[in-house]
Amino acid sequence: MTSSCCFEYERKVINMIKQLSVFIENKKGRLAKITGVLADAGIDLIALSIADTTNFGIMRGIVKDPDKAVNILKENGFTASLAEVFVVEVPDEPGGLSNVLQLLDEADVSIEYLYSFVFAQNENALILFRVEDIDGAVAKLKQNGVKLLTADDIY
Amino acid sequence: MIWNQKIECMDREQLSVLQTEKLRKTAQKVYENVPFYKQAFDELGVKPDDIKSLDDLQSLPFTVKSDLRDHYPFGLFSAKSEDIVRLHASSGTTGKPTVVGYTARDIKNWGDLMARSFAFAGGNKNSVIQVAYGYGLFTGGLGAHYGAEALGATTIPISGGNTKRQIMLMQDFGTTIIAATPSYMLFMAETMEEMGVDPKSLKLEAGVFGAEPWTEAMRTEIEQRFGILAIDIYGLSEIMGPGVASDCECKCGLHISEDFFLPEIIDPVTLKPLPYGSEGELVFTTIDKDGIPLIRYRTRDITSLNADTCECGRTMVRMQKVLGRSDDMLIIRGVNVFPSQIEGVLMDIAGVSPHYQIVVDRAHNFDRLEVQVEVEGSLFSDEVRRLEELRAKIQADIQTVLGINVKVSLVEPKTIERSMGKAKRVIDNR
Questions:
Q1: Best residue in A55, A62, A71, A132 to probe B by mutation, most B CBs within 10 Å?
Q2: pTM above 0.90, yes or no
Q3: Are B130 and B156 spatial neighbours (Cβ–Cβ below 8 Å)?
């Protein structure tokens, strides 16, 4: 019992990816400023998505050094935080995403948001998920043979 | 037309004698009946009998809004509760409203004072007066109503809102005088234009406008669009309600009914009285009220006084249109708003006091208030849904506390200017 708990914990921690989130007012030049700050600090952007509303936006991204990125952005007067997400790898063909979504649906996992990106050398599609119940989601997907990336795979 | 010729055109020396006598009686009344005033007088070493002339007014204690709040609800009343026939209330800086009470004699006098204002606008018993100020705890509606009835006019107690209906009744009833807030009047003009009604086609001759600050430009616009005389009326519930002061047809300052309300202008910092012509904070002593007479009540309104005889023949001192306030209270669409109330809402939601700013605009004669809140630390979420919920909650809570609908904008940290001293919370673009 104990060993399987540790194993579960280990699995979750390995599959949990830290995503950078930054608050952006809908004003000219703010996004450029954010990416400029990251560039100056030598931080590479691996994945990027921007959620926008009429009034503000939220920049979400995967970077090589998420803790450093959060701090450097805060120092530059931005509101930034880290969120727990997971990333699945699926074949880049029709049904890739649909299959994963059906599994999550079966497990009653509600999805906050998702977006996709690729690695240059990889033929598969990478999809990032932010869900309410990350443990339940990861468990269900693993049971069904879906490949999840680890933090090491990414940064 | 002058409603009360004898009083309104009284020789100023005679007026001083009348005022001094009333002041002595009032000082006596509050000293005997209101513990707050007895203590205040005693602390200054002053007795009601010491008052021999109007110069002695300076030696009396001041009263401020928080005194009414501290003695909520009836602690400052002079009359016995069985003699109080009416209560009114207005908003305060925190949860509890400011409460005032009236005896039957106060109500009758109030009606008479308001009748003076309607007479300024050319009103008489043949007038048809539409009262579009809100009826209820707010003094505007009932104050104007009793004044219209005292005048002998046909009074339409329509209150605010329901604009299309107001316009229809204005046409059908043949309204000749309207009492409303100036911004609502301009809003009605726009609605009329949408309805295809020519504002000049009405039987309207004049309007008595107040309850919020308004510019000469707005007055000209109202007069031109409707083809009427637009006069300014001033009042506050602590002193009586509408009818404390009013424009005459000359529109060169608002005549204060000095037989009831003794005005002073003071320097808001040193509290020293200033001579006629100087700008400063307006202070009133009510010298003929039974319910809640007040001594040297600081209104926080900035203006100046002019004691020259007016061309209309009235000798009562005139106050300039109010220029601003010495506190941070705002009036938005006729509602009193204190920035500290908004700060209270934000603190309850966030647990801390976020940096915020209030921006006030007027578009199409409609006041709009925007609350900008910096998103920092615990307020931030990576989920749009949560930020939207935050925005909606702030908006809903402000609606509950203030009773007005405001726009809430989430902004980045450090976008709101920091100040060395007192934070500049409000940007008023009106």
A1: A55
A2: no
A3: yes
The ipTM value here is: 0.78
Contact state of B413 with A79 under an 8 Å Cβ cutoff: yes
Helix/strand/coil (H/E/C) assignment for every residue in B37-59: HHHHHHHHCCCHHHCCCHHHHHH
Tell the CATH topology of A17-83. VC0802-like (3.30.2130)
Q: Do A112 and B385 touch (CB under 8 A)?
A: yes
Side chain identity at A34, as an amino acid letter?
A: I
Q: Are B380 and A51 in contact (CB < 8 Å)?
A: no
Domains of chain B plus CATH, in order, are 5-327 (3.40.50.12780), 331-428 (3.30.300.30)
Q: Where are the alpha helices (DSSP H) in chain A?
A: 2-15, 30-40, 66-75, 96-106, 134-143, 151-154
Asked if residues B345 and B406 have their Cβ atoms less than 8 Å apart, the reply is no
Residue A74 neighbours by CB under 8 Å, 6+ apart: A80
Residue type, B190: E
Which CATH number is A2-15+85-154 given? Answer: 3.30.2130.10
* Residue range B296-355, pLDDT digits in tens: 999 999 899 999 989 999 999 999 988 677 777 888 887 778 787 888 888 888 766 678
